[in-house]
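User: I would dearly like some help making sense of a protein record. I have put the entry right below:
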Amino acid sequence: MTDIAEREPRIVIVGAGPSGCFIAGALRRSLPGAQIVVIDRLPCPFGLVRYGVAADHQSTKSITRQFDRIFTREGVEFAGNVRVVREPEAGAVTLDELVDVADAVVLATGLAADRPLGVPGDDLPGVYGSGAITGLLNSHPDGEAAEDALARLGERVSIVGMGNVAIDLIRFLAKEDTDFDGSDINDAALDAYRRSQVASVDVFSRSPIELAKCDAQMIRELSQIAGLHVTLHGAVGVDTDTVADRTQKSRVEALRELAARAVPDDVRIELRLHFGARPERVVGTDRVERLLVSTGEGSRLEVAADSIISAIGFEAGPGCLAIATPDAGSGRIRPGLYRVGWLRRGPRGTIPENRADAVAVAAEIVSDFGSGAIDRVEAGTPILPEEVAVAAVSYDQWLAVDRHERESAPFGRIRAKLRSSAQMLHVARENAPAA
């Protein structure tokens, strides 16, 4: 009988988004004989790439081709439609059960809940989270409740936050229908938005212009949108000659170039970018009416708003498997249990940064196997309980969903995403190749 210590490792990764896929690939390269299983609560892989990256940024979404090779050529298994929970629940597997049957478990579920504004009135109707909006535009199965929000945005929209997600929202609000050719946007959501007739967008950054969180390239994309008139307000007077950081300097220059464009002959949307502006209160009776903002040195600004979108980041939602660890620089919760990506670092960083993070945590795992720090488990028990395994979606079944979405795409779209888990499960089981 093979000694447990000599047996190839069994590793479970919870979450099939970019961090989960990156660490699966890194572990496969270091441990070519390991059994690696990536599980996800949805019937499909790719997480934030599929449902968070803007629908008109298909070049960014193309990273899924790299992930595809992990599952089709490198022997990593995918099990979708699998819920991992803390306490026993019918049809789900508990985290403790996974720890008992795998030598190492990696939590890569990210942080999916929109961070609230945290000011009085932020619970009024008409205040929305950016994740709910972008999820709907990307046909996330949990996103249909936000469709009514798009139809009720009104003429005046305020966005709090000026990171790349905020810029994604601006592009969506300002673009015309033909600008979405070649995307995978949810057309039902787009139709709902057209009923809002947004005429002005105010965006608020707590930071001065040089410290805003958006990328210069994202800002320059806005200059390609016809009918958009941009003005800058607040803490925008920095002298670029005094800005040593090249990224900050490039951002300031891009913003000023955007605002310096000639006023379009036919202005469709007024975009006002406010810097050094801190929201203090959402004002309204039965619904959002105004946003009260502090602009520094005791001055305040009241902006009329029919709706407000919070784009200030994400946090752990209900059921999140996050576990605190005293070493924030490590993915190790304890030998045999790890976390990676946003679940480890917090909701910041781009897809390439998640790749670097995954490589670092994978190295920790490999080191722990090599040092004997990980207590190995008996290999006889299946990774998933029978009732969970029967309902799981394999990667071949996902490929049937992928093929269906591409073949069903209307003119001008690269795919028509199935909008519910039930639809994906039906297609997966009816159209996947026979085993």
About this structure: The mean pLDDT is 93. The two ends are 31 Å apart (CA to CA). DSSP finds 16 helices and 19 strands in the chain.
